[in-house]
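User: Predict the full complex structure for these chains.
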Amino acid sequence: MKRFPSALAVLLLLFGAWAAPAHARIPGSPIVVVDDQHTTLTLQTAPRRIIALAPNVAEILFSLGLGPRVVGVSVASDYPAAVKKLPVVYTINGPVLEKILALKPDLLISAAIVPQTTVTKLRSLHLKVLVTNPSDIPGILHDITLVGDAAGVPGTAAKEVAGLQRRINAVTTAIAPLKSRPTVFYELDKTLYTVGHGSFMDSLITMAGGRNVAAGVNNPYPQLSAEALLADNPQVILLGDAAYGISVASVAARPGWSAISAVKNHRVYPFNDDLASRPGPRIVDGLEKLARLLHPGVLR
Amino acid sequence: MVSDEPRPIPRPRSELESRYAKPYGSVSCPEVRPLLEARGLTCGFGDRVVLHGVDLTLVSGQMMALIGRNGSGKSTLLRCLAGALAPLAGEVVLEGAPLSRVERRTRARILAVVPQELRVPFPFSVREVVELGRAPYAGFLALPSSEDRLAVESALHATSLIEIAERPFQQLSGGEHQRVSLAMALAQQPRILLLDEPTTHLDIAHQMGFLHLVGRLCADQGLAVLAAIHDINLAALYFDRLAVLADGALVANGAPWDVITEQLVARAFGARVIVSQHPTQGVPQVSLLP
Amino acid sequence: MSVVARAAEAVVVARHARRPARRPSLILGGLCLGLVIVSLISLNLGPEYISPTAILGMALQWLPLHPARNWSDVDLTIISLVRFPRLLTGILVGAALAVTGTAFQAMFRNPLADPGIIGTSAGASMGAILALALPVQIAWLGFSLVSLAAFGGALGAMFLVYFLARVGNRLPSTTLLLAGFAVSAAMNAVAALIEALSDQLRQMYIWLLGNLDQNSTQQLITSLPFLAIGILGLFALAGDLNVLLLGDEQAHYLGMHVARRRLLILVLGSLLAGIAVALAGLIAFVGLLVPHIARLLFGANHRLLLPASALLGAIFLVVADTLARMMLAPQELPVGLVTALVGAPWFLVLLRRKKGEYGF
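Assistant: Here is the predicted structure of the three-chain assembly.
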């Protein structure tokens, strides 16, 4: 008979855990998440010291209000402005292991650009590494949820993701009835590297009501030839390399380019590549900006 | 195969011969066991036969010269005798045992070869080069023993290299290089010494000095010496027996006066010469007839 | 001269024999000391400051009488899991590459020979790049797929070269060189093709330049017996390497079975080169330059040259790695870059001073 109350308590606890809303978390219990590599991570308590090994991870963390918990970033991180004051522990040549260890992080979050050997090495130092590797826009939203869960703020993440989804839906519904879909060339660099099937920007172009001239290419970052481009004659050109000194005027001055529809109709626009390539919340900013450039006046 | 030509008038033994020709160096002496024999040796490369049916015997204390024009097979015969080239027919017998059955290291302790030119591409000192001659005696870890050190020392002394033993090999002259080659061969403590045209790159003084040295060592240590020599006169001066190669065979084998005749030189070398006696040494010398 | 008299003369001669100018034990002892000093300095340098006394304390803590603990857990982790494995990798890989380079230079009588000359580097590159291009992650005994593939590629190249170069039961050095060149070219081409089709270029580039921090102490201990077999085996062949310098024919006259020895040196050298590449990627110049530097400093006799090369190679790589870490801190340069930058000028200076002795 003495055992009955404790058994009942256990049953109630189990019932409570099962019946609780998916994103509520019983404080004190360990956090268990499965990352994009299908590795299960267990954290005994919510991580208070987090290292972002890629710029997009830093953006995700800050968008979830976790900025104060970030103790180290990578060298390419530049948004929001606050990250520039944080110590750089991941350089072009890889992680600075000693600095990472000295910061005593509870969790490291990596992205696709971090090589697997680095992740293995970090794990061998008994560090917990969460690997994010989204392959499409829904994947990005999933990863924001994943990061929120891992950090112990599932509710905040759910709200953030819901907001982003609403904005995406607003764009797609506004674009859906439109008949014209201008052809778009997105220039990654002046040797005509562009975005193909499998890259985020390719999806964004389609979602924003455009047609990527390289949509049929299976390589996410193919290189187009000048003749192919002239033959495609895109109606809009976006300069993803605007940050590297490529200006609208310089493009118009390229030999033979004055014949391209986009140049003739002055529809060559600089574009912040960070909004198109970093798998984080700003991808939706990129979507909205793109929609405004391709179909001015359609979005409120 | 002694030549069929009329024998020349016998002359008194020269001082050289008295000094070098030892009674036990003669083939006709039955107590002497031949150290190295070629029996019906046919050697060549693949399908190209260079020499056939060569019979040769080397005995202790005897200096034999191998002469013949370029391409007559001197080097090939030496390589065959040393075991570097497998014979196409016939066999080489080393101290009574077929050479092919003799273990390599054992062979290297009995038979040493002095090459035409020793190339040492890295900065070794003279002593270090001579120490290489002890390779056939090296144990597993190859740490030098006292016998090794002794053998190297006596080789350096015998070739008068002890003064320059620590100098880098590359800084020596051609004559000194040859002496180092000889010292390395002597460090093997061989009973048979084969030399492949050792005097080709030397000037006259060094040629004589070197052959004199070899002769002295042959007498002192009872070595059997076979040297390929391109200069007939040098061969006659310093060697007890001459073996002549021509037309792919051994055409003469005997003492200098028995072998060096105008007819033989014409046949073997295609050169017209006059054979005369050396003014002081009593050996035959050829004078060129242009 | 009678036998007795000759023997007596030999004894007198030996007593007055001149001692060699350099004493091997002093040189090797000095190099060992140099390695210890360089290792201690390397352990003390890094982006995080850890006091030398703390490091010494960590090293001595296994002794019964040890100093009190004055370091944090993080310090211990950094030293034991970051700096020490890196140092050990540097020592082992540096020694392995230098010894192999020395042996191959002797075996081929070629001053431009290095551990990769028989195709091991190209084979390793091809294996590693293939592994890096595949999205597969497997590990065995703690070694990643990349390491295993690199090692396998190196050995595969060696077998291919051996079978291509064998002529009857002989192994002529010229055909070995040519076969090595051909196999290297083919495998490098395959590697380049994979690189062109892959998007993992950055990883491949980093691997190709070599780095010493991809191993755990466990992996290093696993590799140790094989490295020992290779290095000690080549040490034992020092006398034969000396003889091989004279050429195949002369080596034969000195009683050596040239083809068999060559094969043994080939196998041991490839084993060492393969393990080195599996542990640290491609580190150029160590196997090529260190033997030359050692030869210019200590002479060409392999009895002293091989162990001296091993120690010098270890010192060289540890110094290069320390510079790679500290020159542009906190950024780290690939160690292969630094070995070239450091080694080449040093070699030029030495060569200028001693070129008279080096008659190629």
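Chains A and B do not touch (no CB pair under 8 Å).
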